[in-house]
Amino acid sequence: MPEVTSSEYIELKRSVDLLELGMFVTRLDRPWEDTDFIYQGFQINTLDELQALQDLCDYVYVRAAKQRWHIEQGSQREKTPSKKIVYINKIPINQELAYAHSAYKDACSQTAAILDSIRLSGELDKHQVNQVVDDCVDSILRNNTALIWLTQIRNKDNYTAEHSLRVCIYAIALGRELGFKELELQNIGVCGLLHDVGMVRIPKNILQRKNTLTDKEIQIVRQHPVYGKKLLISKTGIYPGAVDVAYCHHERLDGSGYPRGITTERIPYYAKIIAIIDSYDSMISDQPHSHSITTLDACRYIYQGKDTLYDKALLGHFIHFIGIYAPGSLVEMNTGEVGIVIETNNEDGIKPKILLILGSDKLPKNERMIDLNKGGITFTNTAYLIKKSLSHGSYGVNIENYLPIIKQKSKYPRS
Prior knowledge:
Distance between the termini: 61 Å
Helix content: 40-55%
CATH class of the largest domain: Mainly Alpha
Low-confidence stretches: 1-6, 66-82
CATH architecture of the largest domain: Orthogonal Bundle
Largest sheet: 5 strands, antiparallel
Number of strands: 9
CATH topology of the largest domain: Hypothetical protein af1432
Strand order of the largest sheet: 8-7-6-5-9
Order of helices and strands: EEEHEHHHHHHHHHHHHEEEEEH
Number of domains: 3
Mean pLDDT: 86
Number of helices: 14
Strand content: 5-15%
């Protein structure tokens, strides 16, 4: 980059949480002589320098070229794409499921291995992280529903690893909805996969506690963003923004979050995305000390926090892509029959494609695919409607058992 003269740049006030490698710091929020920095003005070239600034200051001033930076004094520059990319599914869900099922299982194992390695040795395999994320990006670019569907297959034995992978998948899918470029999809995927990495420092007896946590135990758990930041800040080859997300994904717009209680202007854009997804997946998941709620109730709950807890615009995009009835979720129809949501309908969220699997007596029946958007009709010649959303495992349903049927039938819906 050519040297920037005084007439070609301005100073931007920047929260230290929003600093990135390569930025040139011109001033601090305190006198230079009160610090250990040798130079009065320097470029941030290493993570150690970045960490030192974040430990010492609340904000600094950085040099910003006028032709490259939008002047937004004292607030975050949102990293939305300048031109939204519109993606289309390249293959139908039944074809992508054939590949994605084995890929998802492998990604679960790899994610568990990544977290185990950090827990035992402090080492983070960047190649393994990038491989998991790249595979997820590739699948979601081919079809944006298959992996989302597979996230509904739950294993209680390794909640943190599977939760981390699910947040990664949701984040990439939301990034696609937002029109992110492929590199941005990879970056947000890394943020999602590593957002809870600090949990490896929380004692297992607390994480696996089946009773309600005590106030002291809750405070211990709430240190995981701090641990996550410390674990990632020294790792090279990992997208630097993952540090901010690990540190800030429990912060809320109104300052009611933790660990620092910062408000909207200091919360990084990607952290706002992960905050929504992390909350959503936690709500719809059974955990040792809490039970899941339905996907519909989760959407209702987080929407109540629009503009106070969560970014309203991002929340709107998330609910639009995940659907009121999420892919892979269970629903009960007006006939009493039970079905699995196969695909959402972006034009009308209450009219997804559904595989009916249980009769009105809640016993297995011959499976039948219906598409509510095309006017699914019951055998008594009335319209099918969704009566209510059901929790995971309702009536003993294991959705993984229905994968072979979905692969066969989802291409040719019948009503």
